[in-house]
């Protein structure tokens, strides 16, 4: 395969993202004023609560089966490893650059979560169709030529759809929306609390004497007496009351409402529909009695990616004007995503092959390797918009990482093809 052809192939999904981003930026300009801050906030809420759950749920319900999970079990493990590797390098980057507290979660999220949806969906089939591909002729690559394809358990004619859909749903519905979502939430909460405490301290500092203790001795006595009072109250409670109180405390600490976000719930529903045969037969397939529900859900989910990309473009206008993100942070994220993580991914996949965890099929290995080399996931923009922290910085990060994505994906695709051939 010629390098120029590979460059064009890698650039197509990035160019599509740029065009939609440019549309969002154009509509957000002051003289156009069709996509202002309020509009983006409301649209982002719809994407979060409706479109993204529909995307993850529909894709999982249509593609996941018990046989496919057994056959491609290493795929979600590999994606989890991309998150772990990216998070480690993101944490190192934070230690080196010392960014503001509200950006720490964003930096870790951008280093950890990759765009494994529309980019792979365009790149991998295009690579299969090219002459000189190490995966054989196009028909063999697209049907049943590889070992993990032979069982015929998947109703679609293209196993790549299964791989990409599984990647989208696992990333969007489980890892990204349980891990990155909560990382950014905690970072945002911490920055807000620090800001509030700083304001309160500055407001009251003039009224506190430097030599006056904050607590009197009587206050200290009462403070130490409080636990005894609590224990006496607990002793009088029934066992059921204690269990209820413990569950309430655990729910408050874990913040299950935040952990089980709508996209995560959509992924859980998708798993249930895909794995439970009676429900699957009722909803999935052309002859299913309730196939219209699945079709409607897929139609909603298809709108998530373009609308999310437009939101990034709208935030980019404000981000370029007001963002104070340092160049060292941008350069660090680019180095992590396009050098450190892919190099580590090669070691991970090579180790998996050596220990017999995955078959030595070139296309499967190529997909696993490519998952370590993609740019940051665009859903991170939705998360920052929800918490009102780092929207402009996120848009600037997305702009520069996707500018470098064309060159980076081309280089890594060429190297990965050589590696698995």
From TrEMBL:
One of the protein's GO biological processes: auxin-activated signaling pathway
Keyword vocabulary terms for this entry: Auxin signaling pathway, Endoplasmic reticulum, Membrane, Transmembrane, Transmembrane helix, Transport
Database matches in InterPro entries: Mem_transp_PIN-like, PILS1/3/4/5/7
GO CC terms of this entry: endoplasmic reticulum membrane
Pfam families: Mem_trans
Localization in the cell: Endoplasmic reticulum membrane
Membrane recorded as keyword: yes
Record membrane topology: Multi-pass membrane protein
Transmembrane annotation, as ranges: 6-29, 73-94, 106-127, 164-184, 259-279, 299-317, 329-351, 363-387, 399-420
Primary location recorded for the protein, binned into one broad class: endoplasmic reticulum
PANTHER family: PROTEIN PIN-LIKES 1 (PTHR31651:SF33), PTHR31651
Family per record: Belongs to the auxin efflux carrier (TC 2.A.69.2) family.
Function summary: Involved in cellular auxin homeostasis by regulating auxin metabolism. Regulates intracellular auxin accumulation at the endoplasmic reticulum and thus auxin availability for nuclear auxin signaling.
Protein name: PIN-like protein
């Amino acid at each position: 395969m010629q390098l120029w052809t590979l460059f064009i192939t890698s650039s197509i999904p990035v160019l599509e993202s740029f065009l939609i981003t440019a549309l969002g930026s154009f509509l957000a300009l002051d003289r156009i004023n069709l996509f202002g801050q309020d509009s983006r906030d409301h649209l982002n809420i719809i994407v979060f609560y409706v479109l993204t759950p529909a995307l993850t749920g529909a894709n999982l319900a249509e593609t996941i089966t018990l046989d496919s999970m057994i056959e491609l079990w290493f795929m979600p493990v590999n994606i989890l490893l991309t998150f772990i590797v990216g998070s480690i390098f993101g944490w190192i980057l934070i230690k080196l650059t010392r960014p503001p507290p509200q950006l720490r979660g964003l930096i870790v999220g951008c280093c950890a979560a990759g765009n494994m949806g529309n980019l792979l969906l365009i790149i991998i089939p295009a690579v299969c169709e090219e002459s000189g591909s190490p995966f054989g002729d196009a028909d063999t690559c697209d049907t049943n030529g590889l070992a993990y394809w032979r069982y015929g358990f998947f109703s679609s004619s293209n196993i790549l759809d299964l791989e990409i859909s599984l990647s989208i749903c696992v990333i969007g519905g489980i890892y990204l929306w349980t891990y990155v979502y909560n990382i950014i939430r905690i970072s945002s909460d911490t920055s807000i609390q620090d800001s509030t405490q700083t304001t309160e301290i500055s407001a009251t500092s003039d009224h506190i004497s430097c030599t006056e203790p904050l607590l009197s001795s009587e206050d200290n006595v009462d403070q130490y007496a409080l636990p005894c009072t609590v224990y006496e109250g607990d002793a009088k409670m029934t066992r059921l009351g204690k269990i209820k109180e413990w569950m309430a405390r655990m729910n408050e600490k874990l913040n299950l409402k935040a952990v089980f976000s709508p996209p995560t719930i959509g992924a859980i529903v998708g798993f249930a529909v895909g794995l439970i045969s009676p429900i699957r037969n009722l909803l999935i397939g052309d002859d299913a009695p309730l196939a219209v529900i699945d079709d409607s859900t897929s139609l909603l989910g298809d709108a998530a990616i373009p609308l999310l990309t437009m939101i990034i473009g709208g935030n980019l206008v404000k981000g370029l004007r007001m963002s104070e993100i340092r160049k060292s942070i941008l350069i660090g994220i680019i180095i992590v995503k396009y050098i450190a993580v892919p190099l580590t991914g090669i070691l991970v996949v090579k180790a998996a092959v050596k220990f017999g965890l995955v078959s030595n099929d070139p296309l499967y290995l190529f997909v696993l390797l490519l998952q370590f080399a993609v740019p940051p996931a665009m859903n991170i923009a939705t998360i920052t918009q929800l918490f009102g922290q780092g929207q402009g910085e996120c848009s600037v990060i997305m702009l520069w990482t996707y500018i470098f994505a064309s060159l980076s994906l081309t280089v890594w695709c060429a190297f990965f093809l050589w590696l698995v051939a």
